[in-house]
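Example 3.
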Amino acid sequence: MEKTKRDKPWLMRTYSGYASARVSNELYRTNLAKGQTGLSVAFDLPTQTGYDSDHPLARGEVGKVGVPIGNIGDMETLFEQIPLGKMNTSMTINATAAWLLSLYVAVAERQGFTPVQLEGTTQNDIIKEYLSRGTYIYPPGPSIRLITDIICYTVKNIPKWNPTNICSYHLQEAGATPVQELAYALSTAITVLDAVKESGQVNPEDFEQVVGRISFFVNAGIRFVEECCKMRAFVELWDKITRERYGVQDEKMRRFRYGVQVNSLGLTESQPENNVQRIVLEMLAVSLSKNARARAVQLPAWNEALGLPRPWDQQWALRMQQVLAFETDLLEYGDIFDGSMVIQAKVDALIKGAEEEMARVQENGGMIPAIETGYVKRQLVTSHTERMRAIERGDLQIVGLNCYKETAPSPLVSEGESSIMKVDPNAEREQIERLNAFKAQRNQAEVNAALANLAAVAKTGENIMPASIRCAHAGVTTGEWSQVLRDVFGEYRPPTGIDISLQEESPSAIVKLVRERVRSTGEELGRPLRILVGKPGLDGHSNGAEQIAVKARDVGFEIVYEGIRLTPQQIAKAALEEGVHLIGLSVLSGSHLELADEIFKELGKAGLADIPVIVGGIIPVEDERVLLSQGVAAVYTPKNIDMNTIMLDLVDIIRQSNGLQPFEQKAA
Amino acid sequence: MLARHALPDPEALAAAVAARDRAALARSLNLLDDKRPQARRAASRFLATLPGERLNTAGHLIGITGPPGAGKSSLTSALIEVWRRRQLAVGILAVDPSSPLSGGALLGDRLRMLAHDQGGSNVFIRSLACRGEFGGLSAEVWPMSLAMLAAFDIVLIETVGVGQKEIDISKMSDTTCFVAQPASGDSIQFLKAGIMEVPHILVVNKEDMGAAARKTLTELRTTLKKQIDPDGWQVPALSVSATTGSGIEKLADVIDSHRRWLTEHQLLATRRKRFQGEWILKRLREEFGRFGIEQLGGEPLLFESLTQRQGSPFDLYDSLRDQFLANWKRTT
């Protein structure tokens, strides 16, 4: 039989990294041996937010959601026996992207390669961090400058590098509808390209190259036909924008190039095996259209809503891609939707909606002012709140969560603790020891000179990359590099966006009941019920905290919510000064045990040991038990979707801690 | 430790607050917010036990108001930084709007106000929902400001001013600052029309916006040429930038100069005593309307007597309330 001509498949990656550079290196080499064709590095939160492992804010977070990279020593270990000149590496890194890219370049140089040979991607979309994910550090102005510097540096020196991956992925995770995803991602891309143009670092004749290097990182949800159309809409819109706004002549330079991680928001904790078919269907959205096919795909593991996936779970996700690419006939055809009127009509509708929303962003002065005033964030919080309400009402069906809930015992999760991975609790201590050992052997004079040079460059408009690469070679740490820029640029907190008005027109009976209980309990206790919603640690996933805050206000609580990245001290201080009746903590980084423990200590010091504390997040069952035994009043995880029930609980928890009879007698 | 539902001992609490015990201050604010009868009695004793001399003559009660988006929190943050350098102890009462439907509210801009503080801040912030009060300030603000005044050198009340509702804050602060948004003519229109009570200091924030800020400042100065407040203070207007920090030291100086001016003209204690009268009158007016006030002797007379009387404002209010209800019963 004659061999059919097939298209080359996309890059297959697994987003991974944890504990330490050493164990992550082993994991990468195992994954590559299994047929993975590129690397996707997950960094831990201290690395992403510019703190060394020994910083007080890093406590409990080291090696949790990714690998800790504190200096060139760690980076060398991470890529040991992986020749960087032959690898394609994607790094999910934003505020500290310039630094991690500098370390990557420095390691490549030590391996004997030149920057020109390097291929890969730095996410480097700090703008969306203000809206979702939350690993921003500096104010918008300096952040745009960092993005711009990386683009200008790589276009000249690492021509095959994708310097920025404009993300719509995280916008969808924060609640964006397909139209919002299109509009905000493209508005961000425009902001970045305008900034590059304005910086004057690129000759006008080279600008087409810059446009050609812009890539995107997109999400695909379960409504896979619409998502398929969204990808096609992206392709059409980007072609139009690059042609009309930037005058790009070369069609190749106008191509919408994107990588994908499929949706994590829709993965369920209950009946988690169903996530497998969700992930496969979502993968179809980004692969079916030849004309709008992803360049790189990474799939989540089926048990992501339960905790950290094990190597076997990640292997399963990789095998899904391999079956689609190598067993099916997908890659043998041209675009299978060309000429479909149904698909085109949907694409056109999405384009129309996106262009209208992009115009509104422009009316707000562009993407940055629209973020600074809170406009975009409020739109996202509104969409997400509407989604949550639809799930609550049952209008949006999620199998196993709000319908078809009955299930036989699952053999996949019956293993309990062993069905997810646990990071070695010694990882943090060992990382700090390595950091100290590294610092002891470096040339301090060189470090000081490199940092002084970095500060000088940061104050001028000069490109930050050469000074950063010098820092990398000199042995500067992640915390030191970031601190120099913190001193020059300052720090920033964006609006939380929860100040939306979303009163239900005709509240349901249950909402009325909750409001009545909140009001009457406030009366019994003498003053309105107050709740502090706090996000301790470095984790920036704020959906849960935002939704609780919005809902609690809606039922009559007075809410104190200050956004992400609070220290336990700040939380205890706010609880004292604001006289709250209850503290709700939201942690999704896996650091809940350490953080809850620290907050209890701080509350004890402030004489507030009797204020009830609840915790929400991705919390394994075993940890839930530990938290409850530590004195946490209740634990909520992604399977608790009924916000009204949570609110009723909160009222009762407050009642009990104040010596009042709870409304509901809960079965023990 | 006392159980949370037990009420604190008012006398001990007042002594601890005067000694700047932060936990005691927090408890006293909870107590002043507490509407239960036994708590009201305890709160009343607490207020009566606070050092009266201090409440009449010491510290500085500053009100900051202005339209949403004028940058009040950032300005507060910048002022906090100046006061911190001057080694002054600062307490903040931040008032936020409530939802009219559910009564729920989002409180505070704590981190924005402490932006210049790299942790370990001693600034005490209590947020309050305005709880649907007409005039924008909840009934608890003034009593709470007394507790704070007993503990701090500077007590700043920050409130969202919507149109003409800013008036309330001038009835409970020594010095009222109005923060105007460049290129927004609303505040000037209100001033010109005499709808808005004249603040003591007008601040144009966002000086870094350039021409728009300068234009607003010029307009304000023209409008204010003849503006003198009822006490005879000539109202200054100045421009600042909370972002760059320009003009903030100057603003802190001007705020302080108004405080000195009040003392020099022996107006500070008089002004503070008026707050008590205003607060009680407002409560009575809300409860019994103008008719009720007339029954109690009419506003001028009542106000006069209220500013003279010593003791807890809660007690004064309760006794007037009882007096009205007794009259009412007799006449019906």
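The mean pLDDT of chain A is 93. Chain A touches chain B through 47 residues (CB under 8 Å).
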